[in-house]
Each structure stands twice: as structure tokens, then as C-alpha cells.
Design goal:
5-stranded parallel beta sheet; Rossmann fold; 303 residues
């Protein structure tokens, strides 16, 4: 594994190795142990989009492993790809640091960084893909359900970058994903074809949230308005009416179904406060696991 850009780029064996390493390192750090395998190593963290979980979890992961991280905002470099080409930025950073993490709008930005960098490049979120989130989700599901094979996830909301990464994750780990979205906001058909080509019948879509949550082990949702879509906010709120994860919707799901959200949550829009705070919510365990997965990821790529 040279870079970590998309779940689809990785074999099931590679993903399982990362998952096992996440579990091992989590146990180590929870017990007060320490692994300084990245002593003296530096990660450049390139951000076009604001972040709480991504920035802090990667920075803490590097510190935990004995390394350090440098936070780079667009204004620090005159705009990503604006003042100088991305390929130049990739080659310059490669002379200074041991790894590059990028959180960007266009997916091609991380692709181009990886093409020209001589150090590992990590996709920390693009408009197309959010692989670190999907792997933290898998870790959380395995911890709470004790298995991955046969787990059914109902994703209620926009067929966005998170849904796309979950689709490939479902196919790789022999899970089932049903994405319920309003018409016009469905998961890309090309993604459905590719994932079902990996594992038949692993991913499907519906316009009926109640149908999606029936028999689900996990009900998952995300914001209706992602960064960069603010101008569409009112249009999207109207379109997603009826797709809120609330107690009424959960009546169609099994008792004890786990609730997930990749955060930030806009309470009483895509999910109610009552559901976020319910005993079935594993949202903050899911958030914590961003750290544990990313600690394993940087160890794998940079040690």
C-alpha cells in the first residue's frame, strides 16, 4: 500500500490488516502503552475544508506515535493549485516531510498529489470519497456487533462522499448497504455497479426510508448540506423532508438498531437530538475511532 485515496483502491486483505492494526493500537493506548514508530517523522496536513475530527485526530495520531504534524491552510500557500501547480507542491513537500494528508474539495487534487509525491498521500476527505471515515465506521460496527459479515447498514440521506465510501466498504467486507435518498440525490449508479461487481447485491438504493431501515443493524445518516453546497441549503432541506432519522422512522427498524452519524450533526434536520442522545447511539464511539484508525494508517504508510 503506497497511498490511501479510496476504499476501492485497496484489497480486502489490506483493509483487514489496517482494521486489525487499529484494534491492536487502540488496546495498546487504552492500556497506557506507547509505540514511537514514527519518531522524527513529519506529516503535512493540507486543508481546503475546515475540520474538527480530521485535524485533531491526525495530529494526535502523529504525536502518539512519536512524530509531528504541520497544519497547512489554503492561504498559507496562496491557494491549493493557485499560486503554483499541485504537482510542484507535491514534489516540494516530499523533500520536507514523510507523508501528506489532504482534505480537499476536488478529488483530483489528492490524485495529483499522489501522482507526483514521493511520500505517502492520504485522502482525509474529498467531494468524492471519505475513506478514513468509512474505515472508522467499520471498526465501530465490529466493536459493537462483533461481526461485519452480513451486517445491514441503512444510510438515510444524500448519496454523497460518505455514502460512496461506505458502499465500497460494504462490498469489501461482505456487508449490505441500502441508501435511501430523495429523487435526484441518489447514490451514483456507477458506484452501485462497481460495488456490486465486487460483491453481488451488496449495495442498493430506495426512495423509501422506512423500507431501508427494515431489518437494519445500523441506521446511518449525514448532513443534507455538505461544505460547498451552502447555496442549495433551502432547496435541500425541502427535498429531504421525510428523510430525518427520528423515533417515528426507527419504529420500522429492529429494536436496538445502532445509530451512526459521521458528524457534525445538524440536530433536528437530518437527525433529532433525541436519537443522537439515545442509548442506541454509537456516534461518539464512531468519532473516537477516527483517531484509532488513523493512528494505524499513518503507522502502516509512514513507518
Amino acid at each position: 500500500m503506497r497511498h490511501f485515496l479510496c476504499i476501492s483502491d485497496c484489497s480486502t486483505e489490506e483493509l483487514n490488516e489496517l482494521l486489525d492494526l487499529s484494534i491492536s493500537l487502540k488496546k495498546l493506548y487504552k492500556s497506557g502503552g506507547r509505540d514511537v514508530c514514527l519518531s522524527g517523522k513529519v506529516l503535512a496536513m493540507v486543508f481546503e475544508k475546515p475540520s474538527l475530527r480530521t485535524r485533531i485526530s491526525f495530529q494526535v495520531a502523529m504525536s502518539d506515535l512519536g512524530g509531528s504534524a504541520i497544519f497547512i491552510r489554503p492561504e498559507d500557500v496562496g491557494g491549493i493549485g493557485a499560486r503554483e501547480p499541485i504537482k510542484d507542491m507535491a514534489r516540494v513537500l516530499s523533500r520536507y516531510v514523510d507523508g501528506i494528508m489532504a482534505r480537499t474539495f476536488a478529488h483530483n487534487t489528492v490524485v495529483e498529489l499522489a501522482k507526483y509525491a514521493t511520500v505517502p498521500v492520504i485522502n482525509a476527505l474529498t467531494d468524492l470519497s471519505h475513506p478514513c471515515q468509512a474505515m472508522a465506521d467499520v471498526l465501530t460496527i465490529k466493536e459493537h456487533l462483533g461481526r461485519l459479515t452480513g451486517v445491514k447498514i441503512a444510510f438515510i440521506g444524500d448519496g454523497n462522499n460518505v455514502a460512496q465510501s461506505l458502499a465500497f466498504t460494504a462490498a469489501k467486507f461482505n456487508m449490505k448497504l441500502v441508501v435511501a435518498s430523495p429523487k435526484g440525490y441518489e447514490l451514483d449508479w456507477g458506484v452501485i455497479e462497481k460495488t456490486n461487481g465486487i460483491k453481488a447485491d451488496s449495495v442498493s438504493t430506495t426512495n423509501n426510508p422506512a423500507e431501508a431501515v427494515a431489518g437494519a443493524d445500523v441506521v446511518y445518516t449525514d448532513t443534507w448540506v455538505s461544505m460547498g453546497q451552502e447555496a442549495e441549503k433551502q432547496k435541500r432541506i425541502k427535498a429531504f423532508k421525510g428523510f430525518q432519522v427520528n423515533t417515528e422512522l426507527l419504529k420500522f427498524a429492529p429494536t436496538g438498531v445502532k445509530i451512526m452519524h459521521c458528524l457534525p450533526a445538524y440536530r433536528d434536520y437530518e437527525i433529532t437530538d433525541e436519537v443522537v442522545e439515545s442509548p442506541n447511539s454509537i456516534i461518539f464511539d464512531q468519532s473516537e475511532n477516527r483517531l484509532h484508525f488513523q493512528r494505524a494508517l499513518v503507522k502502516k504508510l509512514m513507518s
